[in-house]
User: Which sequence fits this backbone?
């Protein structure tokens, strides 16, 4: 993995011993309970940058930088988690842009055009507005995080 984002992902894997399991057609995600990133092999153009994305989640989770679902109020939790998603996606975009310098035919990743136009804020806006849905279940991010919070705060 090349570039600053690739090096950081590698450092995360080595520092936190985050494991990788492959899926096919289920999407990619990171589970902190298992310290495991699930990487969808069908995204063959973006395998390495997907590892960069999920490693970013692993890093913030291990460093305690994600909001605590129990201690946070609902809105700050959703905002904080959308910010975490935005952070991971920006790293994936930057990583992909690095590869595209050597492989101009490599397709863009999600929100790459928005990033070119509006930078990091455009990515956060796209995620927080619910315009972008999760690749694993098709649910917009704020809705998903809201549901997760509700599950943990039921009477
Ligand atoms: Zn993510």
Assistant:
């Amino acid at each position: 993995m090349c570039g600053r984002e690739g090096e950081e992902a590698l450092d995360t894997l080595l520092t936190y011993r985050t494991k990788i399991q492959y899926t096919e057609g289920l999407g990619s995600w990171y589970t902190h309970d298992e310290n495991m990133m699930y990487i969808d092999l069908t995204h063959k153009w973006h395998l390495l940058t997907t590892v960069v994305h999920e490693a970013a989640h692993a890093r913030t989770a291990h460093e305690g930088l994600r909001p605590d679902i129990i201690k946070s109020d609902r809105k700050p939790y959703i905002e904080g988690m959308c910010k975490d998603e935005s952070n991971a996606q920006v790293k994936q975009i930057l990583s992909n842009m690095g590869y595209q310098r050597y492989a101009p035919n490599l397709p863009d990743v999600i929100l790459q055009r928005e990033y070119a136009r509006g930078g990091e804020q455009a990515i956060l806006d796209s995620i927080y507005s619910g315009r972008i849905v999760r690749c694993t279940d098709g649910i917009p991010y704020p809705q998903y995080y809201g549901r997760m919070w509700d599950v943990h705060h039921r009477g």
About this structure: The chain is about 55% helix and 10% strand. The beta strands are 19-23, 29-31, 36-40. The chain has a mean pLDDT of 96. The chain has two domains: 3-62, 74-152.
